[in-house]
Amino acid sequence: MKLYLSPRAPNPRRVAIFLAEKGVTDLPQVMVSIADNEHKSEAYRAISPLAKVPALVLDDGRVLTETRAICTYLEGIYPEPNLMGVDFEERAFIEMTDRRIEFYLFAGFANAIRHTHPGLAPLEQPQFPEFGRSQGEKVREVARWLDGELAHRPFVAGERFTIADITTFCALEFARGLLKFVPGREGLPHLQAYRDRWSERASAATL
Hints:
207 residues; mainly alpha; Glutathione S-transferase Yfyf (Class Pi), Chain A, domain 2; 2 domains; globular
């Protein structure tokens, strides 16, 4: 197998952290520079036709190109520590939380950044600043909901660390770097404490 990632991009980072949490160090990795438009090259489009990173090329030549699908495959190969649920009930609640975080928090931050940050203009054409600003306001409502949830439990999907926490951390770090979103400054103490605890994990330094 071969894994294609991109430095500093949040979705590739999700997969890299997923592997780090499992202690996997022998999976070959290839870095694709989004800043240099390598993801749109003919060579990379032969691997990922929609020019999306990450991508996992399997031993039989098939390719997985969605973050959640890649992690599902890797969970099957490297089952411990379990990050996606030990039975159908736990898997359902972890997936619900992960999708909520991805669709409402992660995507909200991403839209706000892509449409308001000047550094993203070359990658996001055309930019729609009004849309970006509205997304920045709406995503803060989701962050307030999550802050309330974290007042009652240590991890976003329950009492233990899961893939949903990886998605949450990557969303927060993406927003911290390019949107200057700091939960503590937004009156979200539980989300700030969660982020600070998370940053102490060894995998937080991945990619």
